[in-house]
Amino acid sequence: MKDKALALDQSDELAAFRSQFHFPQMDGKDCIYLCGNSLGLQPKMTEEFVQEELRNWQEKGVKGHFTGEKPWVSYHINSKKSLAKLIGCLEDEVVAMNNLTTNLHLAPSSFYRPSGNRNKILIERGAFPSDFYAVHSAIVLSGNDPADCLIELEPKDGTDYLPTEEVLAKIEELGEQLELVMFPGIQYYTGQFFNIRKITEAAHSVGANAGFDLAHTTGNIPLTLHEDGVDFAVWCSYKYLNSGPGGTGGFFVHSDNARRTDIPKQSGWWGHKAEGRFKMDNEINPIPTADGWQLSNINILSHAAHLASLEVFDRADIHRLRKKSILLTGFLEELISTSEILQEHIKMITPRNPEERGAQLSLFLTKLGKPVFERIVEEGVILDWREPNVIRVAPVPLYNSFMDVYEFVQILENAIKELS
């Protein structure tokens, strides 16, 4: 299998991108970094982008808002073209703003408007806490009871992930009671990629809205949000988008919704039409695009780091990255399935179908979970542990190699052998 890894790396047309990232070091060597689903590595060009804005601040002061190649007052516009390509939408439908949790609260304030018996929100049981808190808050703020209105769906037969068919059936069952479906693109724990188009179509068929948390999806899998008719979507930029810890969030609103005047929103100065913004007349005149959901001017330094990463994505192309990602996870799955000791100690809880997963495979350790994880970390592997017994392994196509995957499996096998 080592020869296969070397051959795959040799034929990898994206291999050169690895050298464009900083890797954490251990004993003078690059760590095996398989944690891009939690925090992406720093592109080497990030420093240049951030330093440019630090110089602008140093040299121009407040004049930096209106002068230079990228004036700060309109800085958010610089990421639109790249983001639109990544998520499959019009440039007017996407804006970088706030952070993920803020956007998770903003969106339901517009798209969860319960009336009478139509007051239910459907999420998956075990949703990421940020998602749960956001929809729970939306229900409470609307004067309803989460015990009645928050529907948490789990697999009927106790399987590891939630079949799309069961999601669609639940939407149909809730029917006219359903106001909002709020699902992830990729489930953080299992790594399952949900069928965004089918879920959206099902929600719309019963008169409900469909929104998605794409924190683990954007920069991981090509998306077609406009074509799919998604009402809204939000995401962070610090995982697969490599834009730094706590990096700027992303917000998508379908143009059909952005143009509507009957959809309420939390008003912000920066969501006001730009030509009248500085008249200071307090007239509410929202921009009829995703920009209309902006509350304030963007964090320039954070967004500069975001732009550096997006430039890398523009050159790599998300569709080429997806092809390599399928090969990487396929190779990892092959190594696990052909190892006797791993088959004895590990259960993969991510869908086997490559079309139903992204760059992450979640490995449930039936024995010695945490000690095995700790031993792997001691050997210079950086990845993610989730209770009760799961190691999330994310070989990222921008900077991970097939040899990374091969060496990780060797270390994993040795750790299990030593501790058994």
The class by helix and strand makeup works out as: alpha/beta
Query: Which segments are poorly predicted (pLDDT under 50) over 5 or more consecutive residues?
Result: none
The coarse silhouette is: globular
The number of strands is: 17
Structure in words:
This protein is α/β, with parallel strands linked by helices and 420 residues long. The protein folds into two domains: 2-30 and 318-419, Aspartate Aminotransferase, domain 1; 51-314, 3-Layer(aba) Sandwich (Aspartate Aminotransferase, domain 2), CATH 3.40.640. The chain contains 16 helices and 17 strands. It has helices spanning 2-10, 46-60, 80-87, 100-111, 129-141, 146-149, 164-174, 196-205, 225-228, 255-258, 274-277, 300-316, 318-337, 340-345, 369-378, 402-419, and strands at 21-22, 25-26, 29-30, 32-33, 42-43, 94-96, 120-124, 150-153, 178-184, 209-213, 232-235, 250-253, 346-348, 361-365, 381-382, 384-386, 390-393. The strands form five sheets. A seven-stranded mixed beta sheet has the order 6-12-11-10-9-7-8, sandwiched between helices. The protein has a four-stranded antiparallel beta sheet with strand order 13-14-17-16. Strands 1-5 form a two-stranded antiparallel sheet. A hairpin with a 2-residue loop joins β2 (25-26) and β3. α1 runs antiparallel to α16 (402-419).
Provide a concise account of the structure shown.
With about 425 residues, the chain is α/β, with parallel strands linked by helices. It is built from 16 helices and 17 strands.
